[in-house]
Design goal:
alpha/beta; Rossmann fold; 5-stranded parallel beta sheet; two-stranded antiparallel ribbon; globular
């Protein structure tokens, strides 16, 4: 954490607005790391999660993708890209409002995270920051990207526990983790070598 905080602080001290992308497989600890950094840095950093760009459940049902929620095509990648571009600009006097994601209702919440123009570092964590295709321009917005990994057994156990804590039964949580989540994890793992920094969490 000390090394991570030092590196993030260096990005915040460059004299302008810097964007730090934190990616990794589901359950690796990227959200925990991003929030810990933001808390430690206080007013110098804000965390804006990619999860705020989940498509609404009703839209996923309409598209026939509800059972694959979390896959690359269940997010508004273009909307996320537009937000990152606005955040890079850091227009004087303009507060940018970013969406969050409420796990208790499994829905995004618009306008929940204010980012003031004087904040020097924006942390954004999510699964597909380094993907190809429509996601490729997303990765180009970050001044630096970190890939977070954790031991597989710990990652899977953590993910199952998270699903249970938000209402799934143990069996449902295990099926989702080893099914949809694991399919997404393989896609994300293939992007690890594109990151600037590898962060290993025990």
């Amino acid at each position: 954490m000390e090394a991570a905080l030092g590196r993030a602080g260096g990005l915040a001290g460059t004299g302008g607005r810097a964007l730090l992308g934190i990616t990794g497989m589901p359950g690796a600890g990227k959200s925990t790391l991003a929030m810990a950094l933001a808390d430690a840095m206080g007013p110098r950093a804000v965390c804006v999660p990619m999860d705020g760009f989940h498509l609404a459940n009703a839209e996923l049902v309409r598209l026939g993708r509800r059972q694959r929620k979390g896959a690359p095509d269940t997010f508004d990648a273009a909307g996320y890209l537009a937000l990152l571009r606005r955040l890079r600009l850091a227009e004087a006097g303009v507060v940018v409002y970013a969406p969050s994601f409420d796990r208790t209702i499994e829905e995004p919440v618009a306008g929940a995270i204010p980012v003031a123009p004087e904040v020097p570092l924006v942390l954004s964590e999510g699964n597909y920051l380094l993907m190809d295709g429509e996601w490729a321009p997303v990765g180009e917005q970050f001044h630096e990207t970190w890939y977070v990994e954790a031991p597989e057994a710990i990652r899977v156990a953590r993910l199952i526990a998270r699903h249970v804590s938000f209402g799934k039964s143990e069996d449902e949580a295990r099926r989702w983790t080893l099914g949809s989540d694991q399919a997404n994890a393989r896609l994300i793992a293939a992007t690890a070598d594109r990151a600037d920094v590898l962060v290993r969490l025990d």
